[in-house]
Amino acid sequence: MRTIFAHRGVSSLAPENTLSAIKLCTDYQVRWFECDIDILHDGTIVLFHDSTLDRCTNRSGSLFALNRQDLDQIDAGNWFGDEYRDERIPTLEQLIAMMNQYQLNANIEIKSGDVSAEASHRLLAGLDRALNQLDDGREYIISSFNPMLLAEFKRLRPQARVACLFETHTLNDDWHMIMEWTGAECIHPQNEGLTQQQVQLFKSKGYQVNVWTVNTKDRANQLFNWGVDGIFTDFPQHLPKYSQLNDV
């Protein structure tokens, strides 16, 4: 099975983690996308990768310091291009509505959280509630680099499919214990340095393997030939459609 995940939406053509980037999936027949979620001071859950606003908005400072009403004053698109001026940071509720409207599926990455345990608990509880609003037939994977968050979310929502994210330097001999501890069905290793032997080991243990972030056709083809189930890419529009015929 071969699945293409549009990384932070079609982030090579539109500002990452915005509704515009996610809607572009429909233009390129990409059924799965990846996005990041975090929580604001008032408990609003939003799509955003960084803990600060500096890189992808017209503002500076902490994401967590914001409240929902602040979102109307923040431009999350003009940095990418004039045509995306006044693009807003989306809320999780808006994301769920878009998934239902366009029949899209999502890998939702929970950011590790550098504010407090209490904020992380609110993030998990809010995500659990939001997923109840998905239409029948919509699919999702919940991923994180933080195994504690994944284990807690799996406890909250046992029916959720969860995935452990690993960077190359954190993919140590204890990876299988971490997968078992969290109850994960999927492993998401970093592309750089990943070997065929590692992929074969993951598959032999019964795990689904989705690799991040793969931005060339030849590497995507190699990984699929090794047996990986999916890849995350910034350029889904450049990859052959044959690799999107089957979902995870």
UniProtKB/TrEMBL annotation:
Cite the GP-PDE domain residue spans from the record. 2-243
Q: Name one GO biological process term.
A: lipid metabolic process
- InterPro entries in alphabetical order: GP_PDE_dom (IPR030395), PLC-like_Pdiesterase_TIM-brl (IPR017946)
**Which Pfam families does its entry note?**
GDPD (PF03009)
GO MF annotations, alphabetized: phosphoric diester hydrolase activity
Q: What is this protein called?
A: Glycerophosphoryl diester phosphodiesterase
The taxonomy runs: Bacteria, Pseudomonadati, Pseudomonadota, Gammaproteobacteria, Enterobacterales
